[in-house]
Design goal:
9 helices; four-stranded antiparallel β-sheet; single chain; alpha+beta
């Protein structure tokens, strides 16, 4: 079993390279909520999927606790976790990558026959195929295959071998459900309620893409008050696109990536996004 100092050294090495790590306990699972955060009393959401504005200094929210801040990683609040840790994980979406987790030999054979070559990391029973780009995380997209990117964690097993390539559409397509063959009943006609009276123009790809690109540019060009700029940008995006359901995990990941490139931590991004949603009543 790897010692706690060695695990912390690995975490600090990852953080120095811009990869946000977190400790895992036995069974390759994250540390649970502390007493103050139990039952999401801190504002975190169910199953720690989208934590709220929690100020807990500990390793309380799974992937959302991942950080590149060495002061947090070495803080007394994290010390107990490192002493109990069995492995180191990282947040793939926080560093702009997607991990295709192949859990057995059959899944590896499928990947070799189906997916573009990229960087690979051997695991206990299979391989991690790592692509440049982010998407939503989904488990069991096919037998023995999980997708780990935004709002997920992957165990750190080394840098791997091979050249990392761009995230292909064939991987994104794995998370798209097949359309239902059942024809829905005709909807009842109701009077418009104001929102979307003329149809939702936000779903126009050009309009939405321009809005996300402008938000990325605003964050990237910030020269000071980065925290404030990120929050106000998130607020602007959500006020325009947050009520019609057109924002996807990929759009959110682009904004988070831009913010992290300016020095924001994954937790700060989550807090800013959640606070903006709260402000708008979403």
């Amino acid at each position: 079993m790897t010692s706690a100092p060695a695990l912390l050294d690995t975490a600090l090495m990852l953080a120095a390279h811009g990869i946000p790590p977190l400790p895992l306990r036995a069974g390759k699972v994250p540390f649970g909520n502390c007493p103050d955060c139990t039952g999401n009393a801190c504002g975190g959401r169910p199953n720690m999927k989208t934590p709220g504005p929690c100020q807990c200094p500990g390793v309380c929210h799974a992937w959302a606790a991942a950080t590149t801040d060495p002061h947090v990683l070495t803080s007394p609040a994290w010390g107990t976790a490192w002493r109990r840790a069995a492995a180191v994980a990282y947040h793939p979406g926080g560093v702009g990558v997607t991990v295709v987790d192949l859990d057995d030999a059959a899944a590896v054979d499928w990947a070799r026959a189906t997916l573009p070559a990229t960087r690979t990391v051997p695991t206990t029973r299979g391989e991690h195929w790592i692509y440049r780009g982010v998407m939503r995380s989904v488990n069991h997209v096919r037998p023995g295959v999980d997708i780990k990117s935004t709002m997920a964690y992957a165990r750190w097993l080394g840098p791997g071998t091979g050249t990392m390539t761009a995230l292909p559409e064939v991987v994104r397509a794995l998370t798209v459900k097949e359309p239902s063959t059942v024809r829905p009943a005709p909807p009842s006609v109701t009077a418009p309620t104001g929102v979307g009276e003329a149809g939702c123009r936000h779903r126009t790809p050009v309009y939405l893409e321009r809005g996300i690109a402008m938000a990325e540019q605003r964050i990237t060009e910030a020269r000071s008050a980065v925290h404030t700029t990120v929050y106000r940008t998130f607020l602007a995006v959500l006020s325009t696109h947050g009520r019609c359901g057109c924002l996807t995990d990929a759009h959110i990941a682009r904004l988070f990536t831009a913010a992290q490139a300016k020095g924001e931590s994954p937790r700060h991004c989550i807090d800013a996004w959640t606070n903006a949603r709260t402000t708008l009543g979403l």
